[in-house]
Amino acid sequence: MFCKKKLICFDLDGTLIDSVGIWNQVDATLIEQLGGKKVDLFQIQVERDQYLQHYKTYSDPYLEYCAYLKDKYNFALEEQQVKQKRYEISHYFLDQVIDLKPAVEFFLYALKQQGFILALTTTTSINNVDRYRKNNSNINQKIDIDELFSLILTREDVENIKPSPEMYIKAMQHFGLCSSECLIFEDSLIGVEAANNAGIDVVAIYDQYSEHELDKIKQKAQYFVEDYQQLVPEMNISD
User: Fold this and answer.
1) Residue range 81-124, pLDDT digits in tens
2) Do the beta carbons of residue 195 and residue 201 sit within 8 Å?
3) Contacts for 16-20 with beta carbons within 8 Å, 24 or more apart?
């Protein structure tokens, strides 16, 4: 898995942090507050994934997603206001609830100590990453994001979100490396497909919110692990 690799790229939501379910709660709260309707959490996740995929070539896929929610649930606010309201609702969850997946900190620091270059490659916004850095003690008491990651790429750094390979190609080019020298950790099908499209080996980490696409994830990923405990240093990660 790690043989001859130099750069290891990590997705954030669902890969390093337990957050996908949080965004389901954020969207459900948004719909209830603005539209007066209760929605199934799994269903809102499926819809969000579908519409972000549909709008992947747009300049702001999340604004388009908010416009979709506005139309479907008859929000009185304009889409930009809906997007702002969504972000305001998310603050509590981003600051107080979201945490690292078990054993992530041990794994990341072990990789760093062994000389691997680490990159954070996420289609979440830089504002969210900054909140994790500054406000979320669950995360920043365990890891120093800026110390660990030599490169941080967010949604603002690319024109096309995953499954476009743009983010991973950009990370490779930044360090002057080729695909065989890189490895990617992802949790979702679109993330695994982005790695495939970049021609880079991908490790799929289990996330309960990707359970509905798990068979396809396993088919398309070069490696699959249930959790980071499988990859801690005593298991000789250099093999």
Assistant:
1) 999 999 999 999 999 999 999 999 999 999 999 999 999 999 99
2) yes
3) 16/100, 16/101, 16/104, 16/108, 16/185, 17/98, 17/99, 17/100, 17/101, 17/104, 17/132, 17/139, 18/98, 18/99, 18/100, 18/101, 18/207, 19/98, 20/45, 20/187, 20/207, 20/209, 20/210
**pTM for this predicted structure:** 0.83
The tens digit of pLDDT for each residue in 23-82 reads 999 999 999 999 999 999 989 988 998 888 888 888 888 899 999 999 999 999 999 999
Residue recorded with tokens 């690292």: 100
As a whole number of angstroms, the distance between CA 94 and CA 158 comes to: 23
CA 131 to each of CA 10, 39, 139: distance values in angstroms, whole numbers, following the listed order? 18, 27, 10
